[in-house]
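Query form — protein Nicotinate-nucleotide--dimethylbenzimidazole phosphoribosyltransferase

QUESTION: What is the three-dimensional structure of this chain?
INPUT:
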Amino acid sequence: MPPLSDAPALKTLADRVRPVDRRAGDATRAYLDTLTKPPGSLGDLEALAVQLGEITGQAKPEVTPPACIVFAADHGVAAEGVSAFDQEVTAQMVANFAAGGAAINAFARCIDARLEVVDVGVAGDMADTGTADNPVVNAKIRRGTGNILTEPAMSCEEAVAALDAGAQAASRALDAGCRCLIVGEMGIANTTAASAMLAVLTGHPVSGVVGTGTGISSAGLSHKVSVIERAIEARWMDVSNPLDVLANVGGLEIGAMAGAYLAGAARGVPCLVDGFIATVAALLACELCPEVRGYLIFGHRSEEPGHDVALEALDAAPLLALGMRLGEGSGAALAFPLLDAACAMLREMATFADAGVDDSRS
Ligand SMILES: O=C(O)c1ccc[n+]([C@@H]2O[C@H](COP(=O)([O-])O)[C@@H](O)[C@H]2O)c1
Ligand SMILES: Cc1cc2nc[nH]c2cc1C
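ANSWER: The structure tokens for Nicotinate-nucleotide--dimethylbenzimidazole phosphoribosyltransferase are given below.
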């Protein structure tokens, strides 16, 4: 079954994703060599400028203002003791986001980002927790996923609804004038779901993709590997159908993140990918629609070992490596100033001709 054949709205969205504009990228590359610096001397920032040219089709791209969107959901598999924290912490952290006290609130303020938290599946009731500065949107699809050890995470309809909720959140941010999406998540036990998805989608052994998440012990890690192996064994899924993989072993916030990347790509804006869970969601989006890949910029390298496997599957090299493993979009938010700097380089630097500086190459 083609992945999106039974999800017409998503298929329409995926059909709107155009390949990035390689010609605009070539023009940016040529223009960079006219600026007052030795060719290539701004290193990875130049590659970033080229990618922003490809994504936007603009000679002078702009990425401000950015949007931070944090998707929150719970995971039934938390009942198996796979996380260092209890499921209730998801709802408590959503309340913390609403109060402005989480890392992503601080970092979003640093970069003047629009912040929105979207409850796509928190087990507890989050209604009326948001504020004007830190809104919490109620897009709850169900109260947490099923425990993947004993039942599918969600139905195929719920998986499609999760992607759709993510696409709608991205559209709200873009309609409000945001020009870059920073997508994050919060969900106790979601490294278990993301690891299961990654193992199934890439064929990697579970033991090679699982890490300690929020900080479980080494005994806890062995238990987590065993839970994921048994969950994959117990589920009947079409491993060539990414939506079926999401429905069987994934998470509501993971589907929503993939939907946000799809919508961002369809609207031609750069999407900054955060850590491990975010990169597995990016892999899901690219499996549904390979053209999305050109719109993704990878913010940081997470400490979670599976992140390297997911990055490799996407042929991606992150901008930063700060030893972080928080989630929430925090690493992506910290990488945003580099995108802004790449735009400033194109917008503000003088050319050799303008500045009267000899270009020794000619
Ligand atoms: O982004 C990452 O790379 C990352 C790595 C490890 C943990 N996390 C965060 O920690 C939570 C999941 O960890 P766990 O141990 O409960 O599966 C979830 O809320 C994630 O945002 C995030
Ligand atoms: C406190 C806490 C904050 C988080 N932010 C993202 N994931 C998280 C997990 C925990 C446990």
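ADDITIONAL NOTE: Residues 8-60+347-355 form a domain with the 5,6-Dimethylbenzimidazole Phosphoribosyltransferase; Chain: A; domain 1 fold (CATH 1.10.1610.10).
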